[in-house]
Design goal:
The complex is a heterodimer of chains A (about 375) and B (about 525).
Chain A: H1 4-39, H2 43-53, H3 57-74, H4 76-85, H5 87-107, H6 113-143, E1 147-149, E2 155-157, H7 167-191, H8 194-225, E3 227-233, E4 247-252, H9 257-261, H10 267-284, H11 288-310, E5 313-315, E6 325-326, H12 334-361, H13 368-373
Antiparallel strand pairs in A: 1-2, 3-4, 5-6
Helix pairs in contact in A: 1-2, 1-3, 1-6, 1-7, 1-11, 1-12, 3-4, 3-12, 5-6, 6-7, 7-8, 7-11, 8-10, 10-11
Chain B: H1 4-45, H2 48-82, H3 84-118, H4 125-154, E1 159-162, E2 167-170, H5 173-177, H6 180-210, H7 215-250, H8 252-258, E3 271-278, E4 283-290, H9 293-299, H10 309-335, H11 340-349, H12 353-359, H13 371-380, H14 385-414, H15 422-430, H16 434-448, E5 453-455, E6 459-460, H17 461-464, H18 470-501
Antiparallel strand pairs in B: 1-2, 3-4, 5-6
Classes of the chains: A mainly alpha (about 375), B mainly alpha (about 525).
Amino acid sequence: MLDYATLKVLWWGIVVFLLSVFFITDGFDMGIAFLLPWIGRNDIQRRVLLNSIGPHWEGNQVWFITAGGTLFAAWPLVYATAFSSFYMALFLVLWTLFLRPVGFDYRSKLENTRWRTFWDGGLVASGTVPPVMFGVAFGNLLEGVPFRFDSTLHSYTTGTFWGQLNVFTLLCGLVSLLMMAFHGTNYLFLKTEGVLKERARKWSLILGPGLGGIFAISGLWAYRYVPGYRILSAPGHQTVPDPLNKEVVREMGAWFLNNHAHPILWSIPALVYAGILIGISGVLIARPMLAFLGSSLSGTAIILTAASSMFPFILPSSLDPRSSLTVWDAVSSHLTLLLMFWASLILVPIVIAYTGWAYRILRGPVTEEDVLKEKQTLY
Amino acid sequence: MPTEQLVDLSRIQFGVTALYHFIFVPLTLGLAYILVIMELIYVMTGNPLYKTMTKFWGKLFGINFALGITTGLTMEFEFGTNWSYFSQYVGDIFGPPLALEGLMAFFLESTFVGLFFFGWNRLSKGGHLIATILTATGTNLSALWILIANGWMQRPVGSRFNPDTMRMELTSFWEIVLNPVAQAKFVHTVSAGYVTASCFVMGISAWYMLRKRHIAFAQRSFRIAAAFGLAACVSVIILGDESGYLDDIGQKTKLAAMEAMWETEPAPASFNLFAIPDQAHMKNDFSIRIPWVLGLIATRTYDTPIPGIREIVKTNEGRIRRGIMAVIALDKIRKNRADIQARTTFEQYREDLGFGILLERYAPDLKKATPEEIHQAALDTIPTVTPLFWGFRAMVGLGFAFMALFTAAFYCSSRNSCLSHPWILKWAVFSIPLPYLASEIGWFIAECGRQPWSIYGVLPTFASASFLSTSSVLLTFAGFVVFYTGLLAVEIFLMVKYVRIGPEDGSGGQIKRSHPAAQTLPEGDRHA
């Protein structure tokens, strides 16, 4: 029933799904951390912001960890090559992510302004660097990463951290930062009251259109200046994965071939704008849930825009296009894909169910009174 | 091949970050269950003192948990960053347990730990207890999956090398889950975590008792921890023995190195209680031996010999020679997939492929390998003996010391006479750091004892590393040292601060010898 080729495509879908859920959940955590000093002007306001995500951010972060784990299991070559190629960038992300657990958990444990300001700085870094680096990484995927394999599949890279930063990849970083910040404001619109809600509203109305603008600029930039990759010849999709057994060219416009072949795909970038509009309207007509769904949609559609234009490529190689990794040849064995497919199919709905239950238990806005009442136990 | 310097740096970075991660893990594993026990008593008896206990130890749990999460994140990514060939070579088998750890364990613990801290006023008593139980279950499930992955590195079952994809591939998931090494390791490791947490709770409670603070609180916490620790300690020792037995089946090099056993002795082998190993000359300069003991423990028979290091080296020279054939045949297959003859040769020698790869470190061109190079590589299959020998003795010694402590503590706390035996209380206070030491030594033995392999007998460590620039690994390693030192300092500072403040049970700082606990507590038990 589930042959190898079908599973390969399904796994592409699962990875995109996991990245999207990571954005929808942890995205607002990062956005709020990024905006912490601007929306929270004093200590108590910042504590309200932190406690609005306090019970959830740990669970949300697991979507990131799980995306890493499933990458290892389903696309081991991608996990191995991407992580070693983005070595410094990844450690920058890790180190700034370190500041989150301790920032959340330790910040309010001491009544000391310098201590709290220090951790606030750490939290802002944790809400800025990872989103930007995720965007930069996506930008590099679109541009191609300089690596190649030898005959025993050792990977060699000539890339450097500074080489991964350029106008286009930084634009992508900005898109990623803005989409999380926009999402964060809409979450705050849902979870706070009074002055904080009002500030979240204002920021949302700035960030939403800003995201739309930057996304359009990056898209145009990609269209004008970023060459894509195209498979010239490859063995069938059912074959044993062998990334060296294909011919690939790098050429201008190749990332738009999928959209030319299937014009329906243009609806995905359109959904980005639909999401932004819904997000903003939700804020304007004071329907917080609608606003939250809108920003969720816009970010998901952004991820999907990049992923669908690259399909079947995952990690193209600019050094040796033949070594590029695709959904057909970067995958695990049939048995592992099958096993992990069923495991995900069973476990992910369970996870979503109890996560949803936890949100329901802790629903409703967080207020200054709540924080003052539980000064010792809350973040 | 990556340079020696690069491999060493990547190993040091991985080792340091892993050992650092394991400073926080054992306490999380054990304290989660101690919280379950305390809250269970609270729910069953309604005695608010137990709620105070759950909240106080829960706060320390939270401080520790934050760093467990932080440092665990590193581990999830270091396989890809520093060990990319390892990831490509075994991801098909090693990846699934890691992904399942995320899906089954991390979500559970991370979601319910949020409800544990934030749900006191939102959940019913029973509902909150369930959140605590699920947090504990999540932490322990996480240990299960990661130890299944590690167990496979120690004893790679349920898999087969595929020359077409140039990697190990899964053949049976159940063999990997039910790998006896993984199961023994799991119980040994979580029990060690329970011992760590018990010593932690006992030590801090003993400190309160010595200071005559929070007496009722401290006595009850002490009693729970002593009982829990006693049971866990028995389990640690039994499963530690099981691990040694399994090493005899699976990893004879680790066992021989741990025991500094150079010669194969007539069965049952004697146990070196004390020895000064000399690896260069393959002998012990001095040793005190107990006849029969090792043979009985490791083989559980009277008549099965245990191979000594000299014999293992000889056997491995043969495996390396066959491994050369396997590597050469594999090269031919990689150049021409249709080479039937090479495939037949490969099938014949496939079991020894790893040993051929091991030789590449000494002889880059295997076809021209000299007997001297083969001998060097065979010597390399033996891990460094002295630290393993002494590390093992230290760990076992600590294990029995904990047993004595828990027995004494359990005895006196069940007779309610701890306050009149201050020496037991002091002993408990000074024992707080020791389980951490034992756990770290345990991991050192498990991982360094497996060298030179990252996957035992399959993939050498040096071949697993990513090709990175030495300077970038040096930079990240320096970054870790700075970050981790800072975080540890902050963590210990907060722990000490909150321990000094103590639980808010209304008896802080007061000297009380008789203590009907419940009455001294304020009604409603709200902690503002």
